[in-house]
DNA sequence: AAAGTGACGCATT
DNA sequence: TAATGCGCCACTT
């Protein structure tokens, strides 16, 4: 990945997500002025930095991404549950309780 | 340079 | 309600 600028921007946003909160890919993309949320996924995918809580980034409806860097959504779920995040389905978090609006 | 790919999202079938 | 299609940005081959 050559474009580190975008990568760094996304990293700064994700690292600001409070513990126990989640954000959607689409929202991050909007903040960056992108109309394509895939870019966000692309950036997180190449990242394995533990400083970046990428497990707090979920899909629009709160569903977890199927391809998590560290493994699958099961791993992501485990990390989220460790932060007391409530799941309304086995692979869907409770957005009403844990959604963090980016400002 | 052109086509393929992807941690998505929304509209249409 | 589920499946399919397409837009969109950047990366890879």
Describe this structure in words.
The protein has 103 residues and is an alpha+beta fold. Helix content is 39%, strand content 13%. It has five helices and six strands. The chain has helices at residues 4-14, 25-31, 38-46, 73-81, 95-98; strands spanning 23-24, 57-58, 67-68, 71-72, 87-89, 92-93. It has a two-stranded parallel sheet with strand order 1-2. The chain has a two-stranded antiparallel ribbon with strand order 3-4. Strands 5-6 form a two-stranded antiparallel ribbon. A hairpin with a 2-residue loop joins strand 3 and strand 4 (71-72). Helix 2 packs across helix 3. The longest helix has 11 residues, at 4-14. The relative contact order is 0.19. The mean pLDDT is 93. It binds a DNA duplex (13 and 13 nucleotides) through residues 1-3, 6, 24-26, 29, 34-46, 54, 57-60, 64-69, 73, 76.
A few lines on this structure:
With 103 residues, this protein is an alpha+beta fold. The protein contains 5 helices and 6 strands; from the N terminus they run αβααβββαββα. 39% of the residues lie in helices and 13% in strands.
Report the uncertain regions. Answer: none
Helix/strand-derived class? alpha+beta
Could you give the order of strands across the largest sheet? 1-2
Question: How many angstroms separate the termini?
Answer: 27 Å
Rg, rounded, reads: 13 Å
Instruction: Determine the fraction of residues in helical runs and give it as a percent range.
Output: 25-40%
* Outline: globular
What is the succession of H and E elements?
Answer: HEHHEEEHEEH
